[in-house]
Amino acid sequence: MFESALPHIKKYYPLLIIWGFLFWISPFFLPDELTITTQNHLGWGYVVILFILPIVGALSFPFSLYFKEKKWMLPSLMLLLAFPISIALQIFLIFFV
Question: What pLDDT score does 40 carry?
Answer without folding.
Answer: 64
